[in-house]
Amino acid sequence: MVSLSTPLLGGAIHECGAVNLIMQDAEFNYLSQLAFRESGIVINESKRDMLYGRVMKRIRHLKLNGFTAYCQLLQDSYAGELSAFINAITTNLTAFFREEYHFDFLKKVALANFKHHNQDKRLRIWSAGCSTGQEPYSIAMSVQGQLPDWDVKILATDLDSEVLWRAHQGRYDDLMGVPLHYRSQYCADMEHQHRYGMDDEIKQLIAFKQLNLLSPWPMSGLFDAIFCRNVLIYFDNETKRKLIQRFYSKLKPGGYLFLGHSESLQSSNTKFKLVGQTIYQR
Ligand SMILES: C[S@@+](CC[C@H](N)C(=O)[O-])C[C@H]1O[C@@H](n2cnc3c(N)ncnc32)[C@H](O)[C@@H]1O
After folding, report:
1. Distance, CA 191 to ligand 1 centroid (Å)?
2. CA distance linking residue 189 with residue 191, whole number of Å
3. What is the pLDDT along the chain (282 residues), one digit of tens a residue?
4. Closest residue (by CA) to atom 26 of ligand 1?
5. Does 54 qualify as catalytic in the annotation?
6. Using the 8-state DSSP alphabet, how is residue 204 labeled?
7. Where are the domains of the chain?
8. Domain 12-89 of CATH type 1.10.155.10
9. At the top level of CATH, which class does the domain 100-281 belong to?
10. How far is Cα 125 from Cα 154, in angstroms, rounded to an integer?
11. Could you check whether 12-89 and 100-281 share the same CATH topology?
């Protein structure tokens, strides 16, 4: 367990109502080390305010009197608060058809390739770090109807249990980014709730599961494509390097890895071939 040594002086003072709430350096170090060990997420000095704000929400929610009590709670009832802490520190920004060129490539190039090579008529895609679900639903809408009679499954995983639950619900306040023809085909207007729901036809293609990318992966088969976009940016180089190797071994020969727009493999020593904008092929 990461240990919390005697709090040091030197933390920034933040006003919170009548109370001065201070995050001591020792508390910052404890929380950032815990985040790194449990999720691989690097929280350095430049993200101190982000950590402060997110943990403060937990402190208020739990009606604690500050960071010392919060760190103590994490130490005393480790598993109880740990998952809420991890949920609090993940960044879940996502969108339907984010980096649209990836979905064009999937539909026009990758599917054509799979049709040619997959004699068994099976397609397996993994959305690793799926957040609230817009990514796997965008994959599902792109694939649905393209491979009649195929066995198509999309695995969507995330470490954060809260976003995963929302992804599984498949209900959204808006459908920004979803092309109009998909909206009419696959999204239902839940009039009374002012929300939109993904149709069962799309939902049944996806299995949502909680998975920490740092842990062993229980999936036995290989994937035709892995989307791990805008996740690696939160990790250090060593974690990224190991994950890239593990993704390589989880792809079928000829399978594709889709990364986020700022996550190139240029500096990594990798066997992947660059075949599109942050699209790599095994
Ligand atoms: C910024 S979102 C990216 C969502 C989506 N892939 C996209 O590009 O729109 C990053 C996601 O990675 C997840 N994540 C962070 N660390 C993780 C880990 N160690 N294992 C699994 N998921 C993780 C976060 O919970 C978050 O939902």
Report:
1. 31
2. 5
3. 455 544 433 344 444 454 558 999 999 999 999 999 999 999 999 999 999 999 999 999 999 999 999 999 999 876 689 999 999 999 999 999 999 999 999 999 999 999 999 999 999 999 999 999 999 999 999 999 999 999 999 999 999 999 999 999 999 999 999 999 999 999 998 777 779 999 999 999 999 999 999 999 999 999 999 999 999 999 999 999 999 999 999 999 999 999 999 998 876 678 999 999 999 999
4. 92
5. yes
6. T
7. 12-89, 100-281
8. yes
9. alpha beta
10. 5
11. no
